[in-house]
């Protein structure tokens, strides 16, 4: 993934079904990949990049959620949310605001400062029971 200023730290992917007829074909699936890199001394480098893996392009950059390296990310099962956390001990929930998965369309929905005393290394969504 070209576009980060330093080495990658974390990746997560969401594979969306985009068939309007309800049929599932290999060509109708889009994979959205979220990536983060080691943040430098500025807040701008603590961003999350979103990629359309089918097209191989960056479709968005999520800024303003973190102040340091994002160490973990997880898409919800339906791809509506992305949870992230990292060295700044902040937990962020990003919400998709459009229905087109091949575009960024995520905005910061909630954030908790100093959610833990140490770095949060893992976030995940629980599947429905």
What key phrases describe this protein's structure?
0% helix, 129 residues, mainly beta
Topology at a glance:
Layout: E1 8-17, E2 29-37, E3 48-52, E4 57-62, E5 70-75, E6 81-86, E7 91-96, E8 106-112
Antiparallel strand pairs: 1-2, 2-3, 3-4, 5-6, 6-7, 7-8
Q: Would you kindly provide a written description of the structure presented here, covering whatever features stand out?
A:
With 129 residues, this protein is an all-beta fold. 0% of the residues lie in helices and 43% in strands. It is built from no helices and eight strands. A four-stranded antiparallel beta sheet has the order 1-2-3-4, with no helix packed on it. A four-stranded antiparallel beta sheet has the order 5-6-7-8, with no helix packed on it. A hairpin with a 4-residue loop joins strand 6 and strand 7.
Indicate the overall shape: globular
Topology as a string of helices (H) and strands (E): EEEEEEEE
Termini Cα gap: 35 Å
Helix content: under 10%
Helix/strand/pairing class, anyone? mainly beta
Number of helices: 0
Give the averaged pLDDT, no decimals.
Answer: 83
- Indicate the proportion of strand residues: 35-45%
The tally of beta strands, per DSSP, is 8
For the largest beta-sheet, the strand count, sense and barrel status come to: 4 strands, antiparallel
C-alpha Rg (nearest Å) = 15 Å
For the largest sheet, list the strands in their spatial order.
1-2-3-4
Provide the low-confidence segments as ranges.
22-26
């Amino acid at each position: 993934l070209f576009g980060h200023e330093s080495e990658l730290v974390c990746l997560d992917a969401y594979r969306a079904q985009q068939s309007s007829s309800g049929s599932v074909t290999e060509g109708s699936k889009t994979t959205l990949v979220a990536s983060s890199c080691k943040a430098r001394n500025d807040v701008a480098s603590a961003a999350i990049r979103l990629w359309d893996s089918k097209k191989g392009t960056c479709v968005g950059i999520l800024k303003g959620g973190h102040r340091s390296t994002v160490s973990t990310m997880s898409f919800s099962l339906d791809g509506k949310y992305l949870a992230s956390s990292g060295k700044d001990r902040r937990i962020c929930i990003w919400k998709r605001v459009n229905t087109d998965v091949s575009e960024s369309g995520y905005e910061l929905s909630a954030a908790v400062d100093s959610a833990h005393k140490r770095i949060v290394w893992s976030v995940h969504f629980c599947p429905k029971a």
